[in-house]
Design a protein that fits this description.
By secondary structure, the chain is mainly beta. About 10% of the residues lie in helices and about 35% in strands. A hairpin with a 5-residue loop joins strand 22 and strand 23.
């Protein structure tokens, strides 16, 4: 069983937070008018922002968030506590941010004061109350009921104080005094500046991560140190605790357990380790108990990923990065971690996750987190989504040559950050210095990092060699002997020097930086283009980017093993992102950038089918497939890409009759259910492979009201209309208007005119369906439609997939990017509710075997005899994004489902009963196939709160669905 953090623990913690009441102060809060805002800003709840459990690696249910509206004041640095506060500030947003509700600078000669009250938690005798801070920039002094409980210096580390002795019954006061000198003090501050310019951004001061209370026993688990040892199939575990003699710890996962003493290294055997990687981000739950004389006193939940990373020579003698004994090219972006409305703090948890999802959906497998440490939940999402992280240390404060105080602070924070982030399997590389910024004692500090964490790679100096247009412009420093990488920065085009002499793995730590100005999405003067290494128009960026990848492919063949593009998002004065700062405009279409990336990510891996000639041309052919009962001729088109993948599509119903995809050995099998001949499809079957319309899924009683008129549709599913009616788009012959090989791959265009009144729908609807079998093994379907009357439209695709080829699909592991689903009644009609998936069998936010919970005692599963529900996708409709991933362990096949639709219908073949003889005479029985149908919500015309499916004259309906195949 694969569980990220163990569902019980997260659910318990979510329930334990409670909700703030909407008092007058929270109702009056609003963000300060900002230069630019993201769409998530409107979702910020001042009564309880960031309510999610903040520490996924160490989970207890007894906690309370203190995020929300606090009082604040700014005073002179030497002044005492303020007599009165100046207003309200929304924690955890920096005071300089729009979302704080203040948006004022904090100067080096000032202090920022916070104040709020809270109720003393209910504690049993001997229990302790801890006050936790995710991060405060930079120096924090904390008082509870006027009693100082602790002091902390460091803007990126979490810290805690035991405040039990300072508490009183009833209401308690907490004050936090903050000093943050930004770049004029000894503190590491990253790219913050009091006067932002160029590549330096707005300062972020004060509390910028979650503040929370936690109740613990007198002796408790303080932290865990988890280190995978793949070669020995073991997890090294250290349970750190204040417990001493007479205590034991018990560490267990699904199939193993180890006991020992606190604060000692234990070895938990994982004999059949399922390894973590970007292609397969497999995590295992971990439960830890602290016991005294066999009686459990404390219990926490956690998780771990088994993976190893190293540098070693490939067969050509080049030093390469290997992940789990497999050469893995690190294709990444340089992510600054800034937001226009929250600065250092993402507006919401969903926004934080979306950044990582977006980067991965573009085809990157690596993020270099640039001189910033993120909240724990950012790394948690990298763990569960599968992203390799290069984590920068934040450079020393002060001048280029840091003084003794700045060095001391830097080293303390460096060590604290390495310890704090140690357990995240996504982090594979520590970056010590960047371009010589504040660099000193290179060899000593490299040795110290390796001593602290020998399990990861070390990049001692990113940009130790700097190139501009291929010429050396500066030598910032050189990596020492403990560094695993030689890192070159080359702007704008990728280039390297002396590659044949490199004794370390050679990487491009930065390149690119092409600026594209998108009017209306600019941080500063909206009419003035801002900074970039080179300016380009939006229409030319894709070609410029593709040319860079041509260079990267050549460099990779000579030994380059990683490249980091500057950068994923615009930031303040920089317009060199692939996406605008407000995360609204993608400057290169998603499909195009994925196609460009696929050509490089295949480097170092065997071709999908070794027997296939990579130079073989893509083809599209057609043949007769028979005639309908009305004697209409039907054709069958075969699309084959250069890699050997093949799709067959019939003009009858636009049906995908066959889809040949490779397994991990390069052997091809048909992965969709169906029939060998047209006769099978002409029977009244379960929509195998069909194009579905006018309206995918169900409409209750076949009725809806539009523009004051009532429409009665043909019913074909009891009293309801299903998939377009008795004769939907799946049962008509489409016209093949174009069949050609395009640069993307072979492409077939089908059209159909659905007449006014057909199956009861209003309007003449002209539909076009374009099928493309891309060169990166994706079948893309693009639907467009226009109507001469107001009507409703919801087109989808209904292939039944089986990635093994035969047998049931219960062992397939599915992941769906959705937080909610739409429950149904016994007739499978939505109730109108959008229910959270948390703590239900419908939670596929992390991968689960399809059969793992399908037999659970759940009303919704009983209503549908399994899964046959619509999931509400987290990505906004209209944006092509990854909806779901399905992995089949036996064959190694992976199906990625992408779309721009708001919903995904997941169906598990519940009504296949053995009566259908399919391909090769195989009788399809229950759960022999699954469907992933991106679409609008079922019965939307009768639910005004659901996204609208109305199409008006003059408008064009458009949807895109992609089924992309890879292997693990």
């Amino acid at each position: 069983m694969k569980v990220h953090i163990a569902a019980f623990w997260l659910a318990a913690c979510a329930a334990a937070t409670g909700m703030y009441s909407a008092d007058a102060a929270s109702l009056s809060w609003h963000p300060v008018e900002g230069n630019l805002m993201t769409r998530w800003a409107a979702q910020v709840d001042p009564a309880g922002p960031w309510p999610e459990y903040p520490r996924p690696q160490l989970v207890r249910p007894q906690w309370q968030s203190l995020n929300g509206l606090w009082e604040y004041a700014i005073t002179d640095k030497d002044a005492s506590a303020p007599g009165a506060y100046q207003g309200k500030i929304l924690v955890p947003y920096p005071i300089e941010s729009a979302l704080s509700g203040v948006r004022k600078p904090l100067l080096p000669n000032q202090n920022l004061w916070y104040h709020r009250t809270f109720r003393r938690p209910a504690v049993k005798p001997g229990e302790r109350v801890l006050l936790h801070f995710g991060a405060v920039d930079f120096e924090a002094t904390v008082l509870v009921n006027d009693q100082e409980v602790g002091h902390h210096a460091g803007g990126y580390e979490s810290f805690s104080f035991d405040i039990t002795a300072a508490l009183k019954h009833g209401n308690n006061d907490v004050e936090v005094k903050v000093w943050d000198p930004t770049q004029v003090g000894p503190n590491p501050h990253g790219k913050q500046a009091l006067k932002p310019h160029g590549i330096m951004y707005t300062a972020t001061s004060g509390i910028w991560q979650t503040v929370w209370l936690e109740t613990v026993p007198a002796n408790y688990v303080a932290s865990l140190v988890l280190t995978p040892d793949v070669d020995h199939r073991a997890l090294t575990v250290e349970v750190r605790s204040n417990a001493a003699e007479g205590f034991t710890v018990e560490v267990s996962t699904d199939h193993a357990k180890v006991t020992g003493k606190p604060n000692e290294r234990l070895s938990l055997m994982v004999p059949h380790a399922h390894l973590w990687s970007p292609d397969d981000p497999y995590l295992s739950p971990l439960q830890v108990r602290l016991l005294k004389h066999g009686v459990p006193l404390d219990q926490v939940g956690s998780y771990f990923g088994m993976r190893k990373v190293e540098v070693r020579k490939d067969r050509n003698g080049h030093e390469r990065i290997y992940l789990n004994d497999r050469y893995t090219y690190n294709l990444g972006v340089l992510d600054q971690g800034f937001w226009p409305d929250g600065l250092y703090t993402a507006p919401t948890d969903a926004a934080l996750k979306s950044d990582i999802q977006t980067i991965k959906s573009m085809g990157f497998n690596t993020i270099r987190k640039h001189i910033k440490i993120e909240p724990a939940r950012w790394y948690y999402y990298c763990d569960i989504l599968g992203i390799l992280v290069w984590q920068d240390m934040v450079p020393p404060g002060g001048d280029d040559v840091p003084d003794a105080r700045a060095r001391s602070q830097f080293e303390a924070e460096m060590e604290a950050n390495i310890v704090q982030l140690h357990n995240h399997p996504s982090i594979t590389t520590w970056v010590l210095f960047n371009e010589g910024w504040g660099a000193y004692d290179q060899e000593r500090l490299e040795s110290r990092v390796k001593q602290l964490d020998p399990s990861r790679l070390l990049n001692g100096e990113s940009g130790g060699i700097m190139l501009e247009n291929g010429n050396s412009v500066e030598v910032a420093g050189s990596a020492g002997p403990s560094s695993d990488l030689t890192d070159i920065h080359s702007y704008p085009d990728p280039a390297i020097l002396h590659i044949e002499d490199s004794s370390k793995a050679l990487v491009l730590g930065e390149y690119g930086g092409i600026g594209v100005f998108v009017k209306g999405h600019i941080w500063r003067n909206p009419d003035t283009p801002s900074w970039g290494y080179e300016q380009a128009g939006s229409e030319s960026l894709a070609a410029r980017y593709a040319a860079m990848f041509d260079s990267l492919r050549k460099l990779e063949a000579k030994g380059l093993t990683a490249s980091i593009y500057t950068q994923p998002f615009d930031v303040e004065g920089e317009q060199n992102g692939l996406i605008t700062y407000d995360r609204e405009i993608m400057k290169i279409p998603l499909e195009e950038i994925r196609r460009i990336h696929a050509t490089l990510l295949s480097a170092g891996h065997p071709p999908t089918n070794p027997a296939t000639d990579p130079a073989a041309p893509a083809t599209i052919t057609h043949t007769a497939f028979g005639r309908t009962l009305e004697a209409e001729p039907v054709e069958l088109y075969t699309l084959r890409n250069r890699r050997g993948m093949e799709a067959r599509i019939a003009t009858y119903g636009g049906i995908v009759t066959s889809l040949m995809a490779p397994d991990r050995q390069g052997h091809y099998s048909d992965v969709v259910l169906g029939y060998d001949t047209l006769e099978g499809y002409l029977k009244d079957g379960p929509y195998f492979g069909a194009l579905i319309g006018r309206y995918g899924n169900r409409i209750a009683k076949g009725r809806f009201r539009l523009d004051g008129a009532d429409y009665q549709l043909a019913t074909n599913n009891g009293p309801n209309a299903l998939h377009g009616g008795v004769i939907g788009f799946d049962k008509v012959v489409w016209t093949a208007v174009k069949a050609e090989v395009t640069p993307e791959g072979p492409q077939l265009t089908l059209t159909y005119l659905s007449r006014d009144g057909e199956e009861g729908y209003p309007g003449n609807l002209s539909v076009k369906a374009v099928y493309t079998l891309t060169e990166d093994d994706a079948l893309r379907l693009e639907y467009t439609a226009t109507s001469d009357k107001d009507t409703v439209v919801n087109l989808t695709q209904h292939s039944y997939f089986n990635l093994r080829g035969k047998g049931d699909v219960l062992g397939h592991r599915a992941q769906i990017n959705a937080d909610r689903f739409t429950p149904v009644d016994r007739m499978l009609i939505p109730t109108g509710e959008q229910r959270l998936v948390a703590r239900t069998p419908f939670d596929f936010r992390q991968p689960h075997a399809i059969g793992e919970r399908i037999g659970s005692e759940d009303e919704q599963l009983r209503n549908a005899s399994g899964y046959d529900h619509n999931w509400v996708l987290t990505t906004p409709a209209g944006t092509l994004a990854l909806d779901a991933t399905v992995y089949e362990p036996e064959s190694g096949r992976v199906l990625e489902v992408l779309s721009d639709q708001p919903g995904l219908q997941f169906y598990t073949g519940n009504f296949l009963d053995g009566s259908i003889a399919g391909k090769g005479g195989w009788r399809y029985t229950v759960h022999d196939g699954f469907c992933m149908e991106p679409q609008h919500f079922p019965d939307s015309p009768n639910h005004p709160d659901f996204p609208s499916t109305v199409l008006k004259p003059g408008e064009t309906y458009h949807s895109t669905i992609m089924y992309r195949f890879t292997t693990r």
